[in-house]
Each structure stands twice: as structure tokens, then as C-alpha cells.
Design a protein that fits this description.
Elements: H1 2-23, H2 26-30, E1 33-36, E2 40-42, E3 45-46, E4 53-56, E5 59-63, H3 64-70, E6 74-78, E7 83-88, E8 91-96, E9 101-104, E10 107-110, E11 116-118, E12 121-125, H4 126-133, E13 136-140, E14 145-149, H5 151-162, H6 179-188, H7 193-209, H8 213-224, H9 263-278, H10 315-328
Parallel strand pairs: 2-14
Antiparallel strand pairs: 1-4, 2-3, 4-5, 5-12, 6-7, 7-8, 8-9, 9-10, 11-12, 13-14
Length: 332
């Protein structure tokens, strides 16, 4: 009886061992990863890579260094920390291998997928190319081709197609983008359903107050990570633009930020704060707790918000190039 019992234990242990060994092969299949030679064109010229791009869980990962250097960035690699740092003009981008948190001028950017290394080369999600240096990126699923337009190319587009003088973007005016376009763009960017739904409120209130709703909506996308509220401000605040209370406080403290009773009040407060920056008088009392602290009319253009609404000097430019311009590319 003792022999049989020991024999059964050995069989059970062997069975468990086989399960452990076989499980090692499961993640590779579940990851659904495949390398693929995807053509990438920058300003009409095809880029050459020494490693293929990769499709991972439905996300397109492309070689970072070749694209960033083609955009004029200086790329550095830290072997010890497995960190990539890229500099271009006033923008510094930092990311770490197998970490979804990247930083653009010390501002957190959550990646769709973590960077990976393939044959000694760093691959990053395609969308990050746009988020990093303001390039316009388009993926053609039919031809399986990536098209990238550099920020300089986009400048020509915005000047000629939208009439922005000297690449400055007015805050005041009629909408140049429809509500339908904005919603399609939000869906494409993987926005939270609440962010897609609140677009209607932005277009209603913005049109009524004479502020371009696409500008406020683009800023809200930046401040809330497309309604996912991945920062210190949670959804329950109904604070769609990161407004602080009158007393202010540390950026990483939730209590430093304003809370509003509902979305309409929060969106209206957002517009009232923008109106003060843009130099538009508010009828009645401002719903923004910090309007009185803003120099009236100091930022008639979105680009002027840099160093004012937020400390980063590129804050306003980021709203334009990383959010507003891609929204303009959507056709309803």
C-alpha cells in the first residue's frame, strides 16, 4: 500500500511538471505577435529599416530610431536603465523598454503598448510617433502602409487649409470641425465612452459662447487622456480640463483640483477659463474658480497657452499638433 501511494505521488508530480513545461509555450501563442515588412513613408520618401515592424495584439510597432532621426531628433540609449531619450528642438521624449509610461517634456504619455526590443532595435507603437514630435501618422489597413508627415509638412497644411496665420490657432470663432468628425476621431483614438458622449456638450456650449469647440475638446483630450482620467483628477470631479481650485496646490494632489456638480457645469467652467485667456467677456459670474487669477486676453491663440495654462512652454503647441490637427484629418 505504501508503494502504491508513493507511485501515485510520483505520477502526480510528473503530471504537474508536464503542465508547467507546456504552459511556458502558451504566452507566445496568446501574444499574437508577428513580424512584418510594413512600408513606412515620411514626407513621401520610404524609410529603410534593418528590422521589420511588428503587429502585436492588433497594434503596429515600428522601429523608433530610424523614424525619430528622420524627423530630426537626436536619439540616445542607456543600456543600464534600458531607456531611450530623444531630443528635437524644445521637445524631449523619454521611454523605457517594456514600460507603457513614456514622458514628453516631463508630461506623462500612456502608450498603447510597451516598447520592445527586436534584434537590438527599439520598437514603439505607431501612434507614439505622432504624440512624441507632433507628426501626422496615417495607417492604411488596405495597403498595410504607414504614412508620416513631419511637423513642418503639417504646418503647410494648417496654414493653407485652415487659414491660421503664421501657424497660430485662434481660440475664438466658429467651429471648423463638425461634431461628427470629433466623435469619429475620439473613437479612433480609443477614447472612453464618456469622452465621446460629452462632445455634444462641448459643441453646444462652445457654439453658444463663440469659442471653437474643437479647441476645447482637443485640450480636454490632452488633460483627461481622452476621458480615461489616468491622472490625479478622477471622473467623479466632472473636471474636463484639469482646473485647480482658487488656492491652487501641488499638481499631484487631487484636493488641489476643482470639483463640479455635473458635466455641464464642468464643461462651462472650462470654456469660461478659456474665454478669460482669449479676452472674451463672460456674462455673469465665471464658473472657473481661477478666472480672476488670469491676465485677461493674454492668450488669444492656442499656442499662447504654453507657459500660462500649464508650465510647459509647448503645452499649447501640443494641443494643436498632437490633437487638433489629427482631428481635422477626419472626414465624416
Amino acid at each position: 500500500m505504501i508503494y502504491l501511494k508513493n507511485h501515485k505521488n510520483k505520477i502526480a508530480l510528473m503530471f504537474i511538471f508536464c503542465l508547467i513545461i507546456s504552459s511556458l509555450f502558451i504566452p507566445a501563442a496568446a501574444a499574437q505577435t508577428s513580424d512584418e515588412d510594413i512600408p513606412v513613408f515620411l514626407d513621401g520618401k520610404q524609410l529603410e529599416f534593418d528590422v521589420p515592424s511588428r503587429i502585436e495584439n492588433g497594434r503596429t510597432l515600428v522601429p523608433l530610431r530610424v523614424i525619430f532621426e528622420a524627423l530630426g531628433a537626436v536619439v540616445q540609449w542607456n543600456t543600464q536603465t534600458r531607456t531611450v531619450t530623444a531630443h528635437r528642438e524644445q521637445v524631449t521624449v523619454t521611454l523605457r523598454i517594456e514600460n507603457k509610461n513614456a514622458y514628453r517634456n516631463n508630461e506623462l504619455v500612456e502608450l498603447e503598448a510597451p516598447p520592445v526590443i527586436n534584434n537590438g532595435r527599439t520598437l514603439v507603437p505607431l501612434r507614439f510617433v505622432s504624440e512624441a514630435f507632433g507628426a501626422f501618422v496615417d495607417w492604411d489597413k488596405n495597403t498595410r502602409t504607414v504614412t508620416i508627415k513631419s511637423p513642418e509638412e503639417k504646418k503647410d497644411v494648417i496654414d493653407t487649409d485652415r487659414g491660421y496665420p503664421h501657424s497660430v490657432t485662434p481660440i475664438v470663432g466658429e467651429p471648423l470641425i463638425t461634431l461628427s468628425q470629433a466623435r469619429i476621431w475620439a473613437v479612433y483614438r480609443g477614447a472612453h465612452p464618456d469622452f465621446i458622449e460629452i462632445a455634444e456638450l462641448y459643441w453646444e456650449i462652445g457654439t453658444e459662447l463663440g469659442i471653437r469647440p474643437e479647441v476645447a475638446y482637443a485640450q480636454s483630450a490632452k488633460e483627461t487622456n481622452f476621458g480615461k482620467f489616468t491622472g490625479v483628477v478622477s471622473r467623479e470631479f466632472n473636471n474636463w480640463c484639469g482646473l485647480k481650485i482658487f488656492e491652487g496646490g501641488p499638481c499631484d494632489e487631487p484636493d488641489s483640483h476643482a470639483r463640479f456638480p455635473n458635466d455641464r457645469t464642468g464643461v462651462t467652467a472650462h470654456y469660461h477659463h478659456l474665454m478669460t485667456y482669449a479676452g472674451v467677456r463672460i456674462e455673469g459670474e465665471s464658473l472657473s474658480p481661477r478666472s480672476s487669477l488670469v491676465q485677461f486676453g493674454c492668450a488669444p491663440y492656442v499656442e499662447n497657452l504654453g507657459g500660462r495654462w500649464a508650465l510647459a512652454s509647448t503645452y499649447g503647441k501640443s494641443i494643436v499638433w498632437d490633437y487638433l490637427v489629427p482631428m481635422q484629418k477626419v472626414f465624416d
